[in-house]
Amino acid sequence: MFTISIETDNAAFGPTPVDRAAAIAAILRNIAVTVENYAPVQMERVLYDLNGNACGAWDLAPFDFATHGETDPDEEEDAPSVDPSDIDEITCTYGGSKTPATCYTWAGRSGTWYAIEGSLNVNCTFDDLAEGVDVEELNDHDTGTAAAPINSAEDMARFCSDL
Prior knowledge:
Elements: E1 2-6, H1 17-38, E2 43-48, E3 54-60, E4 63-64, E5 69-70, E6 88-94, E7 99-108, E8 111-116, E9 119-125, E10 133-134, E11 140-150, H2 153-161
């Protein structure tokens, strides 16, 4: 089962039906990329509008290929956790003044997840995350918010284990 809910009553959806349709289409394209790269695992994600504000959520139940149907959540195994040794640490820049920072990265099934040290924001991209990358130039297709700032490989591994 796939469910989606989008609140369209904020400024990011614009004043006209055409603006609203364009904003909704952008959100749906991001969902499509994520589903295409994650399926068939369970996914539940917060949706963000073009201004970066939470505007809804979506949920995709896992598919059981053996029975050609949805799996019973009580029978699902826990996803393997991400080991901190799987997290890479690179130097990156961010912001208009290209502030240098440490960036923690993890290559997952849906692309590479990354977070700037000290941030709650964790993003996913298909772009190359090489040493010295300017994260403002990356094309993110998914985002998440950590419960606490990402200050180490262990913090990043903990976040990625919950994906």
